[in-house]
Each structure stands twice: as structure tokens, then as C-alpha cells.
Amino acid sequence: MTDQPRQETQDYKSTVFLPVTDFPMKAGLAQKEPAILARWEEMDLYGKLRERRKGRRRFILHDGPPYANGDIHMGHAMNKVLKDIIVRSQSLLGYDAPYIPGWDCHGLPIEWKIEEEYRKKKQNKDEVPAQEFRAECRAYADRWVGVQKEQFKRLGVMGDWDDPYLTMKFDAEATIVGELLKFAESGQLYRGAKPVMWSPVEKTALAEAEVEYEDIVSTQVDVAFEIVEAPNAPELVGAHAVIWTTTPWTIPVNQALAYGPEVDYVLVESDGRKLLLAEALVPSVLLRHSREGGNPSPDAASTATPEAEILWRGKGADLAGAVARHPMHALGGFFAKPRPFLAGDFVTTDAGTGLVHMAPDHGEDDFALCKANGINPVFAVENDGKYREDWLWLGGQGSVINPKFVGRDGPICTDLREAGGLLAASDDFKHSYPHSWRSKAKIIFRCTPQWFIPMDQNPSPLEGEGRAPLAQAGGKGEGDNAATLRELALNSIEHTRWVPERSINRIRSMVEGRPDWVISRQRAWGVPIALYVHRKTGDYLVDKSVNARILEAFRGAGADAWFGADHQALLGPDYDLNDYEVVNDILDVWFDSGSTHSFVVEGRYGEGVRADLYLEGSDQHRGWFQSSLLESSGTRGRAPYDAVLTHGFALDGQGRKMSKSLGNVVDPLKVIAESGSDILRVWVASTDYFDDVRIGKEVLAGSSDAYRKLRNTFRYLLGALSDFSEEERLPVAEMPELERYMLHLLARLDADLRSVVDKAAGSENWLEFSRYTRALMDFANSDLSAFFFDIRKDCLYCDAKSDPKRRAYRTVLDTLFHALVRYAAPIIPFTAEEVWQSRYPNAEESVHFLEWPTVDAAWLDQSLDDKWAEIRNQRDQVNEAIEPLRREKVIRSSLEADVTMGELVPSDGVNFAEIAIVARIEMGKGDSIVVKPSDWHKCGRCWRLLPEVEEDGALCNRCEEVLSA
Length: 965
Fold this sequence. Notes:
Helix content is 39%, strand content 16%. The protein is of the alpha/beta class. Strands 6, 7, 8, 9, 10, 11, 12, 13, 14 and 15 form a ten-stranded mixed sheet that branches. It has a four-stranded parallel sheet with strand order 1-23-24-17, sandwiched between helices. Strand 30 (937-938) and strand 31 (945-946) form a beta hairpin. The radius of gyration is 37 Å and the shape is elongated. The relative contact order is 0.11.
């Protein structure tokens, strides 16, 4: 120390080794990200990454295709970002992880948009030539593919954007037809008339995945059918069997009545009429009749029911052989035919009357029961929801989904009332009802000739290719090639990893109970069901030579090759076109997308290759996950994927579904324009996306704050390592205990993060990126910024550059930098690139070429963890005791505090005053922690209060030595 008087104004700032970096605290992501994206495109980041990973084991995430129709929404953004995080994380692990984005280009969603344009121009779609209409659909889809492509790229999604897959490409359409013909060749196709979900607005059959349920109010009616025969209960003749329905429009197509064989029935007299009802439902039925239009609660029914005398009591079995007549029997013809009573095991006493009217055209149970009793559909309702012109009752009228038409005062109820058959009608029955998700209009069940893939039929084996034996598909069974599609699919489900694990229950139950797959649609824009059906036998043609010519035609001209084909040329010389019907129905778009594995995964990576992962929203258990499972199981005997991840839906900040009408839509494009993609990506990665997630201003503010803290961690690291060189690196064995403890924490973090990204780790946390992101953020905030950086800033700023402790600290900082920038890269790819280029500027390199950091497992030290957990706990207690004095401005910082406390356990080798960042610590002074201002003086360079400092502003011994050197 010097004895010379020192000047009060001496400034040591220039002697302190402060962090130096140009990396800005303010992110400015909205402005920077497009430039980074342009650089990636210019350097062909994706292509170069493929070159660098060439020959490595692949990880294939097969992209579920969105519809090419409109700007992306938050659901798109969440889905694509999550996929990109996973693909980037697998690349980080060293896998060759390609990503081929794709689009679903066919089907009703796109047709509907073109028809909307026609309606604006008052054009009728049916008057437009089909080829012209398809061309407009293709152009529309192509335009939106281009728009969505740029929007997805702006999210930071890395992929083969120059060669995406489109279901409307000719080679894709040819492959889809090829997959259909595999089903045909193995006998897994049939055409039959069954009730299917039908949209009168779109005039086509719909798949279950194209239907959504909404609460509506319907008309409920009670209708009387006069009993004309009852061999087992003659006293019922002349009485009226009462049915209840919420679809009055099906009464004009009624052909029978169903009863429950074990149900107790009674004959009661009400208002001078004898009524046959289930005994358990008499109170509620008579109450409806007395009110002529209510929907009474059970309490009301039990307290206000009119009295009724029971004239007969019997079991449903007593109704066997009974016959009724339609209330409109006076019309003659169809309506004059007898309506038999049929035993149905689906009849219950949960609601209604205990008797169910049967219209085989419009219900699955109705169809099955009537078919079993020789009663066939009559196809009375046309594709637009109107009764056909020649129908005796209401011919040419409708639509049957029009509330006024089917309402209490509509023609159906009016005619029934005049005929004496209407006992009650009210427009007040609230229930859930299926709607087309595209038009939002109600659908109906309508019996039409359709093409089906059977779920429970034993197929013929394909020659030389195709379905694997059941044992190969998953290890069960005896290698039976004749396993049904349902059996194969259920077997595949059990041998697929479902994330989250509970999601297996949903798809299993759906496949267990699903009906045969309706694959035909009566539309124009799609892949045709390229089959020839023999006019006499009704069999479709199976000929490999003909099929080969069909596929060649599709490869050359796509679907138009079928609609405008020379079919005799395709049939060849062995068949006469006059003997065959050309099928012009198109395929269900779910068959299209369910076949994508064949021309994307197998088409690009080899026959037999399957995807490691499918990832979509939870609605795809009945959509893409299931259609892909069924298509692949039917043609290959197994699922097309090894694992399936399901995520929830994006809701607004209050947990409500986003809706334009509610004004609560959060637009991802607006978020990106204002805050940047990396903020949105932090939100995605932070959410528990296995369930529905929320997003709004407050949620995004939280994501921005989390991002800001992580960015500042990188800024500190860059500044603290500004002139770091390999010569400064210190071996771990020579490091202080604190540095070795931080390496232990890094190794523990590394294992936690790896458990999320590496399937080989066998962790239950696989693909749970909320855990990954939370661990990364907590480490950066709690372990680094609030602890390690805070303690060692004095060492960094004021120790000599050659000091071993400072060298150890900077060595660990360098290790942390290389680890953290890699860990963060899948989540915030733009910022990670900015960070990497800030330290290692190179136009030809990228942070995304890097692989998982090398973290030595030997750094893990549980005894060190136990010791420092206690030290940190006591440090927190000291800080808590200091805070009141700081708040009351008795001291300005913890450096000015003297602390007395009980013995630190363990304390060996630890300067606890340095760890707690206080002037001094006195141990063994009781159990409580006492804080008082220190009476030591403050060093003018390092600002620590130390005993050797003679007066405020003088130098401590360390600083004196550093400056002297």
C-alpha cells in the first residue's frame, strides 16, 4: 500500500475488465429476423445441413399436410414451430433430420372457396365444365401454397421449401391411385348402399373428421302409428304405437317400428285415444302431449303428469309379428305398405317413447335392422336435401335441414296433424348435432351408393408385396396374412409410442368402434376412384396390366388423365368398354393424406422406410393419424409411424376458442411483425402443449420477458468472453470448487435436456419441450445470472487476467456458452444464429450446423451438489436478512453488510463472504442471522469493503497488486 495522499476524484474505471460486446440488449427481432432468413436462403442452410449429415441415421418427422386455403392461423403456427423445434433438436443430436413440408390440395375446403367465388358472380358451379372447375381449384391451391410457404418460413421453420410435397402433383396423384388399387387387388373394396354422413349444402358424403358438433334447437315430435295386427296381443289392434323423433323429415321415409324385447310396455288411454308406450316413459310422454310443446325437466314430469289408466301390460316380445300403418297411409303406394314391428337391441327407455321409428335410408341402426328383415332403402331424399320429385308425400320439397320446413308449423307437421297422426310437436329440443366443418351447415345421414374399405373382412393376400403378417406388424399373432384391417390397425396401435401416453386410449377406442371406411365423394376436385365396374356382375375389374396403364396415365397428366381418358385404350384389347361402368367418384381426401407416407417417406427414402414421428393436433386421432394408420395397415400390415405426438389447441388468453365473431383471434403474423418469431417460438416451447394452451397479450408478455432474460445471459457471456483464448483455459482439476459445482449443474442440465430430445434415452419426458425450455431458462436465470455470474463478477472485473480463479471462471463461461447456444438453437434459431455470429462471424457457417455439446459425465458430483445446495440455502437466508436494511437505505448494497450467523455447514474450502457478496461473515454467533453496516472502508476500484483499505477510495491489496503489475 502507498503512504501518499490520494486524490478523492481518482477514477479506476479504465482499469476494470468490464465485459465488451456489440451484441445489443434490445433484440429488434422483427427487423433482424428477415435478414437472417435471407442469409440462410442465400447460403442454402438446409441443403448444406443435408450434406453435412449425409450418411447419418435419419430421423424422419413426416409433416401432416394443412389445407392450402388461406393465411395461417395460430394453430398452424403452433404446429409448425413445434415440428421445427423437434427436427432441429434431432439434427443437433447428430441425426440426418430432413423436413419435407406438404400441403393437402384436394377436396371440399378448396372446392368450397371456388364455389364461393361463383356464388358472388351468381354462377352455378354445376354449369361450369368440370375440367375448367378443376383447373381453377388447382390454381387456387397453388396460390395459397405459395402464400403459406412464405409465412411458415417466416416462423423460422427450416425445410425443403423448394421441393415440398403436394397431393395435387401428378406423381402424388398416381401414387394415391396406386395405393387404392392395392386395396382393390387384395379384395378390400366394395360398393354398397349405406347411410353415411351427407352434406346437402356441399352435396357430398363427409368423413367423420370433416364433421363438428354444435348445440342446436330442433323440432321434437310424437307421432301415432295405428296398430292393425298384433297376433300375440290382439287387444292392441286399433290402438296407436307412439314414436318420438327430433328429425321429423325422416317420417316420410319410415318403413318399420322397433321395440326392445325386454322393455315393459303398457297400453294407456289418453284424451280418448289408446297409446302403446314403454311403461317407464309414460309420465314424460303424457306431459309432452298435455303441453303440446315443452321439453319438461324430469322434476316437472314427475309432479305434473296427467292421470292415465293402464289397459294392458306386456313385454316387448309380445309385439313380435305386430303391424302398424303409416299415419299418411291414405296417400297409397309406399305409404299404404304395412309397417312391421321389429325387435331392436338398441331400443332403450332413456328418452322418447320406448318405440323407435325405422327409416333405413337415414340411420345406421335403422339400416342394419331393416336389412336383416328384408327391408331396403328407398332413396327418397336427393343429394340437395329435397325429396325426389316423384315421392308421393312432399315430392320436390325441402330442404330437410331447413328449420321452417321441419318445424312445428311446417308442411310435415301440418300434414301429420291433419291426418290425426301428430300427438305433440315443439321447436325447443336442445341437443348436440353434427355439422359440416366447412359450410357450418347441418348434415344428415343419407343412404347412397358409396365405396367402402371394410374393417372386418379377411382380405386376399397381395402377390409378392404388401401386407406384412400380423407377427411382423408388431410381434403378435401367428403371421396370419388374412388378419382384418381392424385387427392389424389395433395391433399397430399397441406397438406405436403415443405421446402423451394417454392418447393411445382415444385412438384405440375410435378404431375399435369405427364403421367401414367410406372413401368415395361426389365431388370434382380430387383423385378419382379409378375403377371399372362390370355392368352385369357389379364386380370391379382387377387386372395388373390395366392398372399399370392407369398409373402411367396418371403420372403423365394427373387426375385429368382419368376424367378425359380414352378408357378403351386404358382397358386394352382384352376388355370392351361397353361392358363396364367408369367410376367417376373421387377419393376421400383423408385417403389422399393417409397415403402421403407412400410418396413422401417411402418415395424419397426407400420402400419400407417409415416415419419416426407424426405430430398433429388431438383432432387427428379421427383424421390423419387414423387414415394413415388404416391405409398403411391395409397395404403394408403396419402403421406408417413409430411414434405419434398429439398437441392441444391454441385458445385465447381467457381459455376461449378463437373466433372472429368474439374478436379474440390472435394472429401469428401480427405477433411476428411486432415481436418477432423467436418470441412466438418461446411461447410454443414453454407451453404444456399436450393440452389446450392459451395465448394473449399477457401470455406473450411473459414469453417476451423469458426471452429477454435468456438474451441478456448470452449478452453477458459474449461480453465476458470478448478476448478469451485457448491459452487461458484451465483444467477442471485446477478449478475452484464453485466452478466445479457449476460444471456439475451443467452436466445435470445436459442430462435433463437430453431426456427430452433423445428417444434412445428411454425417458418418459421425450418430446416434452416445456420441460426442456423451463430447465434451460431456470438454469440461465437462477443458476447463472442470479448466482454464478453475480458471485464471480468481482473476479471477472477486478482480478488479474492471469489469476487462476479468473481463468477458471472464463473457462467455465466458454463451456457454458458453447452448451447454451446449442441448447437454445432449436427454440430460438434466429437469436442463436445472431449470438453465434457475434462471437464467430463466418458467412459460410451457422450455429445450426453444430451438434450436441460435449459434456463430461465425470463432472457430475452428488456430494458437491449436496454441499452447495446447503450453501445456496444459507446464502438466500443472508440475502433475505439484508433486504430490509437495503430497503430502508441503511446500506446501499450487500457489500456494505457485516453478518453474524450460526456455523455454516459445510464450510470447508468456502469463502462464504465472497459467496454471499458481503463485507464479512462471523460464524458461530447464535442461530439467528444479524446484519449491520460494516465499519470497513470501500476500495476505490473493486468497491469491496475490506480491513486493509485505510479510507474510502483507497485500494485493497488485490487491486494494488493488479495495478502494479
